[in-house]
Write a structure and sequence with these properties.
It is found in: Secreted. The protein has 747 residues and is an alpha/beta fold. 27% of the residues lie in helices and 27% in strands. The strands form 7 sheets. Strands 3-2-1-4-5-6 form a 6-stranded mixed beta sheet, sandwiched between helices. It has a 6-stranded mixed beta sheet with strand order 13-12-11-14-15-16, with helices on both faces. It has a 6-stranded mixed beta sheet with strand order 19-18-17-20-21-22, sandwiched between helices. Strand 7 (193-219) and strand 8 (226-251) form a beta hairpin. Helix 1 packs antiparallel against helix 2 and helix 18 runs parallel beside helix 19 (632-639). The longest helix is centred in the middle third of the chain and has 19 residues, at 312-330. The protein is elongated.
Amino acid sequence: VMQCSASFDVLFLLDSSYSIGKGSFERSKHFTSKLCDALDIHPDRVRVGVIQFSSIPHLEFPLDSYLTKQEVKERIKRIVFRGGSTETGRALKYILHKGFPGGRNSSVPEVLIIISDGKSQGSTVVPAMQVKERHITVFAVGIKFPRWEELHVLASEPTEQHVLFAGDADDAANGLYSTLTGSVCSATAPGCKVESHPCERRTLETVKELAGNYVCWKGSKQPNAVQASLCPFYRWKRVLIKHPSRCFRTVCPDPCDSQPCQNGGTCVPEGLDRYHCFCPVGYGGDIHCAPKLSLECGVALLFLMDSSAGVTLEGFLRYKAFLKRFLQAVMGQDSPMNVGVAQYDNDVRIPIEVGQHKDAFSLMKSIDALNFSGGGTLTGKALQYIAQHGFRSTPVFADVQDGLPRVVVLLTDSRSQDPVAEAAKYVRDKDLFLIGVGSSFMRAELIKVTGNPKQTIVYSDPQDLFNRIPELQRRICSVDNPEGCQAQPLDLAFAVDASSGVGLENFLQLRGFVRSSCLHFSINRDVTQIALVVYGSGAHTVFALDTHTSNSAVLQAIDQVPFLGDLASAGSALLHIYGDVMTVQKGARPGVNKVVVVLTNGGGMEDAAAPAQQLRRNGILVFVVVIGDAQRDTLLRVAGSPNYLVHISSYEELQYYQDLIMERICEEAKSPVNLCKPNPCMNQGVCILGPGSYRCECHGWEGPHCESRVLRGDSPRSPSLPPHSHVRWSPRGLQHFSRVPQHTKRH
C-alpha cells in the first residue's frame, strides 16, 4: 500500500544461475513484482528496468520501455530462466560500462536492486565498490539460502538497511520503502515512522561433523605386523545457520485503532488511512454502522415478552438483547418514544408503559432492569389483559397521540397453556395490530394469534432472531403504510369449484385458501371488496361485493360456504359473475380494477373460454388456479395469458403458491383502469368517457347510471342528476357533477 513517489531510476539485477534454479528464479520474479508495488511507476517519477544475469548479463528491458506499473509487472512475468554460472562481478562491470539502459543519465537518483544467492564464482568486492562510488544506491536481496557475507559486500551502507530477504516479500517491500524514504522518496504518510527491530538472517552451510570412531588398522614398527586402533569418522552435513541482525521497517497506526465501528460492527483496515465496517443486521446507515432502519411510521408500540419458565432465563435475556438491538436500530435520537414493554407468565405486568420514556437512554436502562420471573405460559390471558390495559390514556402519558395505530409485538418461544384464539380475536376487535415473533415450531400458534401469516415472524435459531430486525420493522410500519395491495382499491371475486370432481376434502382446502387469501387485503368500501361464488353445474353467490365491509365478517361468511357436489361448469360461473356479481347494482365500483380468481381441478372448463373473453373485454382480469392434471390449452384460453395461469400439482402445495398469486393480483390492482369497463350504465345505457370522469347516455331511463325508468306521457320524475350528468370516480365513492345545466332526455 505504501508507495515511494519521487523521480528516480530502478534497475533490477536478477540472478538466474543454476545455483538459484528455476523454482527460486520464479520466486525472484514474484518478489520483483512485489517490490514494484512499493514504487510509484510513472514516466515522470519511478522508471524500472531489468537485467538477468548468470554466465553473462542479459538485458530484459530498459528503463524507458514500460512506463506503467501494469506493463512492467506483465513484462516481468514473461522473463525466461536462462541458467549458467553466477558471474555477479561481470554483471556489475556491465552496469559500470553501459550505465542504466534507458535511464535518465544520472540526472535523477539511481537504485540498483540485486536479487541473488550471493554465491558468485568470482570476486565482487572491487566492482561493487566502483558501482557505489558512482552514487548508485545498491540493495542486495537474498533468495533461497544466500551467502550473507557477499550480500553485505554488495549492499550500500548502512548494510542493515540495504540487505533484504526475499523469503518474506511483504516485509522486504516494507524494508525497501523504509530505506528509500530516508533518501529519495517523499516523507512517510502522516502518523507513520521508521523503526528498527531485531531480526535474523538464515542460510544453509555445509559443516564437517564427527560421526564417531571406528576400528581401523594401523601399521607397526615391527615388520610384517599391523595394529588395531580407533579412528575418527567425519561426514559433511548441511546446517541451517541463523545470523542475528537488525531490520528497519515503517510502522503506521492501524486505522481501526480508534474503534470507529459502532453498534458491534467489525472494522477491516484498507491501507494506511482507510477502513470499512462490517455491520450487524439493522445497522449500516453510514460507514460507522449507524442504525440504517427507521421507524418513520407513527405507531404506539407495545412489546409483550414471554417471561415464563418455558422460554428459560437464557431465552428471556435473548429477548431483552433483541429488543434493545431493535430499538437502537430504528429509533433516532429525536424519535418520539411511543414504546412500552409488558411481560407475562401466570400474570401480566407492564413495567414500561407506552410513552413513559422520552429518550432512548432511559428506555434502555428500564429494559436492562427487567427481571425473569418463570412460571406458567398464559398467553391468552396476557393478550386479553393487554387489550384492556396496554394503551391506557392517562395525563402522565399525554404525549402519546390517541390517533396513532396501536401495535402489539408478541415475543414468545413456548406454547400457551391456555386458549389463544378467542383472546387474539378480542385483541384484533379492539383495533390492535398483532405481530407474533417466535421460533419456527411456534408458527401455527402465532398464526392463530395474529390471524395472518404475513404478521408472523419465525426464526430458525437464536442468532437468526437478530436477522429478523428489518422484517419486524416492515411489519410494524405496514399498519401505517399497508404493503402490497392492502392500500390499492380492488374488486375481487373468487369462483370456487364445489363439484364432485373436486370432492369435499379438497373443497375444504380450496375454502381455506380463499380464507387465508382474504387476510392479505384490507376489506372495506374504500379499499378492497370481495365476493365469493361457488359452482357446480350452476353458480351460487355466497356473498356479493357489497355484502361485507370488514375482514372478520368475510372470514365468518367463508366458513359457511356449502359444498355442492354435482358436475362442474366453469362457464356458467363466469357468466354469473359477469351478469350478477361485477355490476354496479351488486356493489362493483367504476374506476376500480376488477379480478376474478377461479379455483378448480380443471374439470368443466370447456365452456369457460368465451365467458372469460367477455370478462376481459370489459376490463375484468380472469386468473385461473388449477390443481392436478388438466388440459393446458383449454386453461390458457380461459386465462388469456400464461401470466394469469398457475398450475399446481397437488392441493397440499396450494398454500406455497399463495404469495405468488397475491403478488400478481396486487400488480393488476395497480394498473391503469378504464372508467367505462365494465359498463357502469344500467339498462343498455352507453358509457361515455370524459377527462377523469364518465357519463351515462340513457334511452328510456334516467339517473346517473340509467337506473330509473322514464314514464311515458308524464313529466319526468325529479332525478338526482340529469341523464347527461358526469360521474367522477374516487376510491371513497362516486362524486357527481353536472356539466349540462338544462334537463335533456334522449329516447
